[in-house]
Amino acid sequence: MSKNSTIHSNKHLLSTLLYCENSLKRRKRKAYVRKDGTSNQLGYEWACAINDMYGVNRCEHRNMVIKDNMIDKIKEMILKLKNTDMKCLLEIYLSIYHSYDISEERVNTIKKQELELDDTVDKCFSIYIEGKMHEEQYHRLNEKHKEQLDDIRNELDKIIHYEKKVEEIKQKYKQWICYINEINLDGLTNSKLKKIFSRITIKTCKTKNLKSNNYMKTIFIDYNFIDVSIEKMIKDLDNHDINDKQDIRRLIAKYDNLFALIEL
Ligand SMILES: [Zn+2]
């Protein structure tokens, strides 16, 4: 491969992956320029587009990163991911998205609800036919009942196909692990990176040493897992009615190292 084509294929490597913490606007790529105005051999930088356009009032920090440094960090992260045992993440995923009560009792309760609702639908129809209900009201009720029936049948479906679904997810998980393990760090592309990373956020925070008044740039990485981002998974855990939340949180804590802020 000629030098030019390498550069070209590399050009969009970080497109739509990097974000600034405050504005969450996509960062843009431009030639990195030294203070003396030269830009030779320094490659490209990404900086907050909002800060660039509107200044500190709209976004306090430029959050600039030099592209090549960023790529090095990303490679480190992928290596870390390759060395991480993700079995517990699968457990977490299943607990959040696929833990149903699949007991016979539950099935019977749902089937009873289904029969009752079917009965209600029939009754409504009779009343309507007898002319004791306005057409508009009938249609409104009928729509509502149909939605309820759909919900009930979906729930029943989930229970009936539970084992199959879990098997499917385990299969997807295996494929995911293979994908991560087989990633070649010298052959990264934008689409490969997007499959692994949901979002890479650059944050600027004050250092602990308050006297020096220095700022520190850090990276927060949100990884994908199977078909969801891990940050989304944690949000769903908070928002949904899920049993054993504490246990799941303890499992998530095992991955603290993966989500620690990385100093730039
Ligand atoms: Zn910004």
What does this protein structure show overall?
The strands form two sheets. Strands 1, 5, 6, 7 and 8 form a five-stranded mixed sheet that branches. A three-stranded antiparallel sheet has the order 2-3-4. Helix 5 packs antiparallel against helix 6 (135-160). The model is unreliable at 1-9 (pLDDT under 50). The protein is an alpha+beta fold. It has two domains: 3-98 and 164-263, no CATH class; 104-163. It has helices at residues 3-10, 49-54, 67-82, 87-97, 104-129, 135-160, 162-182, 190-196, 230-239, 245-253, 256-259; strands at 18-20, 27-31, 44-48, 65-66, 197-206, 215-225, 228-229, 262-263. The chain has eleven helices and eight strands. The protein is elongated and about 90 Å long. Bound molecules: zinc ion (ZN).
User: DSSP strand (E) fraction?
Assistant: 15-25%
Q: Could you tell me the number of beta strands?
A: 8
Give me the strand/helix succession.
HEEEHEHHHHHHEEEHHHE
Tell me the domain tally: 2
What Rg do the Cα atoms give?
A: 26 Å
Structural class: alpha+beta
Which whole number gives the mean pLDDT? 85
The helical percent reads 40-55%
Tally the helices: what do you get? Answer: 11
Q: Report how far the terminal alpha carbons are from each other.
A: 31 Å
Major sheet summary line: 5 strands, mixed
Distinct bound molecules: zinc ion
- The best one-word shape is elongated
**Poorly predicted spans:** 1-9
